[in-house]
Design goal:
With 331 residues, this protein is of the alpha/beta class. It has 2 domains: 108 residues, Rossmann fold; 180 residues, Dihydrodipicolinate Reductase, domain 2 (2-Layer Sandwich), CATH 3.30.360.10. It contains 9 helices and 15 strands. It has a 9-stranded mixed beta sheet. The chain has a 6-stranded parallel beta sheet with strand order 3-2-1-4-5-6, sandwiched between helices. The protein starts with a strand and ends in a 5-residue tail after the last strand. The relative contact order is 0.15.
């Protein structure tokens, strides 16, 4: 990899730039501001700055990463795809499911990935394996939860100015915390129906939802409880699947996976409390570069990103109708 383009100058853009430069120290990493503001290379850690995406594409990069606000993901990706450059789009894929129509079929022939990086955590892969092999038996109920007080996300930064808090940029708990929707789809496949409530508690003075609660079902009869929020003062992130043989628990913050067996028996299947969470971004980057060269697969595809957006749309529709929604009917 000799040259990469990163669109955006926020915290996630800077992370991608750092990782590109650490993993490929001899490569050129070009950054373009998504807002048009003037940047310096030292400010974002890039080797070069371009004023526009078109200018950056003149010296064809090997890959591009779109890490602009969600509202602009597809318009920025479209320009890159038209140049035939493989592109990794930060999550979420877009803001509205209908936005996907802006990508032409020709553009879809170019390699596209979506940045749901939790898939690259070793713990997530352990959970996926246990579920695939059926070690916990028939699953009746699944719980997936994430919550953290939004003002604590980035200390020293006004949370109200960030993308997460602003509707016009594609913020809100539903899109910002859509990792949970992605890994549930990755673990279990398609869902059939959903009933959901999205709310703004009015405690953060932002114009987006700060919590989401949903019930989902699939054709196997499993019930999924989903909770996302910007409100919990003590961060929490967990997954639990209740099976006939055991209960599988994944604590994402402690980075451990347990099997709870009959009685009080508990088996620690995986534990790595010292795990460097930047590693999942590095693994994602390496996998995407391999994918761009037809060397390896990349599971977080355009299609899986669209499926997440179908679930987002179904949640919004259920909330608006105050009713169960058939997910298969969402187009």
């Amino acid at each position: 990899m000799k040259r990469a383009l990163v669109v955006g100058s926020g915290s996630i853009s800077k992370r991608h730039i750092r990782n590109l430069r650490s993993q490929f120290p001899h490569a050129d990493v070009v950054c373009v501001s998504s807002s048009g503001r003037t940047l310096t290379a030292s400010e974002v850690g890039a080797t070069e700055i371009s004023d526009t995406i078109s200018e950056a594409l003149a010296n064809t990069p090997d890959i591009a990463i779109v890490a602009s606000p969600a509202k602009f993901h597809l318009s920025h990706a479209q320009m890159i795809l038209q140049a035939g450059v493989p592109v990794l789009i930060e999550k979420p894929l877009c803001v509205e499911l209908s936005d996907v129509s802006t990508l032409s079929l020709d553009n879809r022939k170019t390699k596209i990935g979506v940045g749901y990086n939790l898939r690259f955590m070793p713990a997530a892969q352990v959970v996926k394996k246990i579920l695939r092999e059926g070690d916990i038996g028939q699953i009746s109920t699944v719980f997936s939860e994430v919550g953290q007080f939004l003002p604590d996300w980035r200390p020293g930064v006004d949370y109200k100015e960030g993308v997460s808090a602003r509707k016009e940029l594609g913020g809100g708990a539903l899109l910002e915390l859509s990792h949970e929707l992605d890994y549930l789809s990755w673990f279990f496949g398609d869902f059939s129906k959903i009933s959901a409530i999205t709310r703004n508690s009015n405690t953060l003075n932002i114009d987006v939802e700060d919590s989401v609660d949903a019930l989902l079902t699939n054709d196997q009869g499993t019930v999924f409880h989903l909770h996302l929020d910007f409100l919990q003062r003590s961060p929490s992130r967990s997954f639990k699947a209740i099976g006939t043989k055991a209960t599988l628990v994944w604590d994402l913050l402690a980075n451990e996976v347990k099997l709870l067996k009959p009685g009080k028996e508990s088996q620690l299947v995986f534990s790595d409390p010292g795990y460097d969470r930047n590693e999942m971004y590095v693994e994602q980057l390496r996998a995407f570069i391999g994918f761009s060269k037809d060397i390896s697969e990349f599971g977080s595809t355009l299609e899986s990103g669209i499926e997440v957006m179908r679930l987002v749309e179904a949640i919004r529709k259920s909330d608006a109708l105050k009713a169960w929604v058939n997910i298969e009917a969402i187009k």
